[in-house]
Amino acid sequence: MPVLFEPATAADVLGGMITPAVLISACGTLTLSTSNRLGRIVDRVRDLLKQAESLPPWNPADEDAQDRRAHIADQIAQQSARIKWLQGAVICLYSAIALLVGSSLAIGLSAVARGSFAWAPVALGLLGACTMLVAGGLLIRDARLATRSTLAEMAYIHRMVARRTGEPLPAAHAEATSAQAGG
User: Fold this and answer.
1) Virtual CA dihedral for 61, 63, 69, 73, nearest 10 degrees?
2) Which of these, 27, 143, 145, 167, is most buried using a 10 Å CB contact count?
3) Domain boundaries in the chain?
4) Can you give the pLDDT of all 183 residues of the chain as single tens digits?
5) Is 114 exposed, middle or buried (0-12, 13-18, 19+ CB in 10 A)?
6) Looking at the record's lineage, which domain of life comes first (predicted)?
7) 30-53: per-residue pLDDT in tens?
8) What percent of the chain has pLDDT over 90?
């Protein structure tokens, strides 16, 4: 039986096959983090449902209830947008893992085929890295939406406290929260 590889070459091939593992590990960590974010959104939406179910019947004179209704609707819209961005990120991360595993396998197959398709591992690795880049962009977008949602929540709390206590908010804090929630 002919020897496919010299021992040194076999070690090089195996070393090359392991190289994408660093990016695969990074994808795994990002996937876990993103899945946790998705879980928190599901929990938040369930909490908003409970809040919506506990709203009093419609009364235009009840300013607190009207503000609460508007706040719940706004939060649902923001969580809906976030979950779509995160779904895209998870799909990209799973795709990147598949492409990077494919790159690792292609390194071995290319060596067996004596380099006749040496372009395949490079192409798969580049596609995997680009897919990770797209996932990173989607996660950045989600982080911005999460920040906006939290600032809107804080602005709602400030309005409720001011309405119930009759005391206005400190001007600098109220303006900063309001400006950031809108932008």
Assistant:
1) 120
2) 27
3) 7-182
4) 565 556 557 777 778 888 889 999 999 999 999 999 999 999 999 999 999 999 999 888 888 899 999 999 999 999 999 999 999 999 999 999 999 999 999 988 888 888 788 899 999 999 999 999 999 999 999 999 999 999 999 999 888 888 888 877 676 555 555 555 554
5) exposed
6) Bacteria
7) 999 999 999 999 999 999 999 999
8) 63
DSSP letter string over 47-103?
HHHHHHHTPPPP-TT-HHHHHHHHHHHHHHHHHHHHHHHHHHHHHHHHHHHHHHHHH
This prediction's pTM: 0.80
Specify the 3-state DSSP secondary structure of 114: coil
SS (H, E, C) 4-62: CCCHHHHHHHHHHHHCCHHHHHHHHHHHHHHHHHHHHHHHHHHHHHHHHHCCCCCCCCC
CA distances from 127 to 15, 38, 53, 108 (A): 20, 25, 46, 18
14-35 pLDDT, tens digit per residue, is 788 888 899 999 999 999 999 9
d(CA 122, CA 100): 10
**Residue-level length of the chain:** 183
**Residue 182 contacts residue 149 (beta carbons within 8 Å):** no
Amino acid at 109: L
